[in-house]
TrEMBL record:
GO terms for cellular component: cytoplasmic side of plasma membrane; cytosol. GO terms for biological process: negative regulation of cell division. Residues 10-234 form the CobQ/CobB/MinD/ParA nucleotide binding domain. GO terms for molecular function: ATP binding; ATP hydrolysis activity. It comes from Abyssobacteria bacterium (strain SURF_5). This is Carbon monoxide dehydrogenase maturation protein.
Length: 257
């Protein structure tokens, strides 16, 4: 197995329905075929679509851990609370899904009301510590990048902003770029746009210029992806000559991330 020279953390973000989850699954397929170290896949989207897309079934989410900590902390004294904090790594391991080829964390859907910022900070640091044991980390983010910064990690090597060719999708992509660059929400080494479900590449490339982002890939509309979604089949099983996968493979092979 080839060991990467550096860790890589790639996050897919963009408008809801733009194809972030499918892209993350295709990134996973690529890195499984091109072994470059230990792979961790994080589903940071509350809709929790990624597990089925990569063929796993979570029994516990990171939010389940969060809720468990909150319940125990409410009934605990000072010493017990310190013990809970020390056991965080162990609790997070309960939420870690391990397959033969990669590991996965599912953030889950918050159900409790109220502010639990200290608990979220604790979880973020715990996940950051766990991520240190992996060489490649892929994140399927919520619409936008705030959740990535708030709950998972503050530094992302490559934020991939995903959009279709709709006006709303491109506007969202532009807004995400502006927020990242102006507010310094996350640190990154490279940022770029991935256009999804493209029918006319020339038209798509012209539209991409509106966002001010480097266009890294045009993923064509792919009937096999739609068929797999309809059948509930994991996208990791897509054939290697699937047009969508070929576009993702070429993007990764042609860039230094």
């Amino acid at each position: 197995m080839n060991v990467p020279q550096r860790k890589r953390l790639i996050a897919a973000c963009g408008k809801g329905g733009s194809g972030k989850t499918a892209l993350t699954a295709l990134l996973t397929k690529y890195y499984l075929q091109n072994r470059q170290g230990k792979l961790l896949v994080i589903d940071a989207d509350p809709t929790m679509c990624l597990p089925a897309t990569v063929g796993v079934q979570p029994s516990m989410t990171v939010n389940d851990v969060r809720e468990k900590i909150i319940r125990e902390a409410r009934a605990a004294g000072p010493k017990e609370k310190q013990s809970i904090a020390r056991s965080l790594d162990y609790l997070l391991l309960e939420a870690l899904i391990e397959t033969d080829s990669f590991s996965m964390l599912v953030m889950g859907r918050p159900e409790s009301l109220g502010c639990y910022c200290p608990v979220n900070d604790l979880l973020r640091e715990g996940i950051k510590g766990m991520a240190a044991y992996f060489d490649i980390i892929l994140i399927d983010g919520e619409a936008g990048v705030e959740q990535i910064s708030r709950q998972v990690i503050r530094s992302v090597d490559v934020p991939l902003i995903v959009s279709d060719v709709s006006a709303r999708g491109l506007q969202t992509a532009t807004l995400i770029r502006e927020v990242i660059e102006s507010h310094k929400i996350i640190q990154y080494k490279k940022i770029g746009l991935v256009l999804n479900r493209v029918r006319n590449q020339s038209h798509a490339r012209a539209l991409a210029q509106q966002t001010g982002l480097e266009l890294l890939a045009c993923i064509p509309e792919d009937e096999s992806v739609a068929a797999f979604d309809m059948q509930g089949r994991p996208l990791l099983q897509l054939p290697d000559d699937s047009p969508a996968y070929v576009a993702v493979r070429d993007m990764l092979a042609g860039n230094s991330f």
